[in-house]
Write a structure and sequence with these properties.
Layout (H helix, E strand, L loop, with lengths): L3 E2 L13 E5 L3 H12 L3 E6 L4 H8 L5 E2 H6 L3 E4 L3 H12 L8 E4 L3 H4 L10 E7 L3 H9 L6 E7 L5 H11 L7 E3 L2 H16 L1 H16 L4 H30 L2 H14 L2 H15 L2 H11 L3 H11 L2 H15 L5
Parallel strand pairs: 2-3, 2-5, 3-4, 5-6, 6-7, 8-9
Antiparallel strand pairs: 1-9, 7-8
This protein binds nicotinamide-adenine-dinucleotide, (2R)-2,3-dihydroxy-3-methylbutanoic acid and magnesium ion (MG) (2 copies).
Length: 332
């Protein structure tokens, strides 16, 4: 059984009075900086230059400073810049100012697990990895909840790394639901595998393939959009609240029978074999190598795919229907 920590196991005391540098003010950076500040902690936002993130941080009431100035004045440094950028930020802005006893904190284990960053033994290195997108980390916190997270310790120089990881988790709201103890290896590999085969890649291509199938068969794209893409949230919300059994209870017997039989026919052993292949590429480091190379070439695959998706029929139809979709959303 996994070790789960909740509010009663965590205190802010181990990090009270310490200054926390949040490096990056994007998806997670903004959520963490705001949540930690609202939890009464001393946060400074560190950024590379005066761009959009800088303006956003100022609009939220922070006084951002350059990355290395944030590092110099802080005890705890949280890496919330993109994974591919972290090793450069570490090498150029963090490492030269590292002091014995400082903490390096990650929201995902990529750079530590694949040894792109190798900190000295005299600092604590730990992770608090929210299991949800940054804007949700903020939204749940504001409404009194929190997104569950994983915590892991890579280096425990002080002997207090777990207490501090739990304090950060509490500060962002994650101990309200609970946090699970893991390792950098388990978090990194499961996070990458999950987002590839399921959360990001799998679900998107499942929905797009279903949409395209209906349209290619001559059905109206608007009808196809509501059927294969828009309704997904409603079904997933029921799974989220009540599990698969609860979802199957909520749909018709016709949908139950069709779903149970055809689901396994479409998402078959062959699909699972490919999931396993993708997972092995994460485990043996091939995916990391491939992603680093893509990033070093200027991320052409990402750029091309974003353009293709933006111009796709499903996206255009979705944008056309967005007003209608918005009108139907609950008002409170
Ligand atoms: N996005 C998520 O919901 C999510 C969820 C869990 C964990 N994480 C992890 O959190 C970390 C941050 O990811 P994110 O998605 O929030 O990042 P992001 O892409 O939203 O980060 C953007 C921030 O990084 C800065 N930045 C971008 N390029 C930079 C560069 N070249 N040099 C310096 N700063 C640069 C931007 O100015 C901005 O402030 C990653 O380790 C990621 O794996 C993200
Ligand atoms: C939000 C996700 C997909 O769970 C996260 O892992 C990320 O990398 O953005
Ligand atoms: Mg991820
Ligand atoms: Mg994730």
């Amino acid at each position: 059984m996994a070790k789960i920590y909740t509010e009663k196991d965590a205190s802010l005391d181990p990090i009270k009075g310490k200054r926390i540098a949040v490096l990056g003010y994007g998806s997670q950076g903004r959520a963490w900086a705001l949540n930690l500040r609202d939890s009464g902690l001393d946060v400074v936002v560190g950024l590379e230059r005066q761009g959009n993130s800088w303006k956003q941080a100022e609009a939220d009431g922070f006084k951002p400073v350059l990355t290395e100035d944030a590092v110099k004045q802080s005890d705890i440094v949280i890496f919330l810049v993109p994974d591919m950028v972290q090793r450069y930020v570490y090498r150029e802005r963090v490492q030269p100012h590292l002091r014995e006893g400082m903490d390096l904190v990650f929201a995902h284990g990529f750079n530590i697990h694949y040894k792109l960053i190798e900190p000295p033994k005299t600092v604590d290195v730990y992770m608090v990895a929210p299991k949800g997108p940054g804007p949700t980390v903020r939204e749940y916190f504001v409404h009194g909840g929190g997104v569950p997270a994983l915590v892991a310790i890579h280096q425990n120089y002080s002997g207090k790394a777990l207490e501090k990881a739990l304090a950060i988790a509490k500060g962002i709201g994650a101990t309200r639901p609970g946090v699970i103890e893991t390792t950098f290896k388990e978090e990194t590999e499961t996070d990458l595998i999950g987002e590839q085969v399921d959360l990001v890649g799998g679900i998107m291509e499942l929905m797009r393939s279903a949409f395209q199938t209906l349209v290619e068969m001559g059905y109206q794209p608007e009808v196809a959009y509501f059927e294969t893409i828009n309704e997904m949230k409603m079904i997933v919300d029921i799974i989220h609240n009540k599990g698969f059994y609860g979802m199957l209870k909520a749909v018709s017997d016709t949908a139950k029978y069709g779903g149970i039989t055809v689901g396994k026919y479409v998402i078959n052993e062959d699909v699972k074999r490919r999931m396993r292949e993708a997972a092995e590429k994460v485990r043996n480091g091939k995916f990391a190598e491939e992603w680093i190379e893509e990033y070093n070439r200027g991320s052409p695959t990402i750029k091309q795919a974003l353009q293709e998706i933006q111009n796709s029929l499903e996206e255009k139809i979705g944008n056309q229907l967005r007003e209608m979709i918005e009108r139907g959303k609950p008002k409170s």
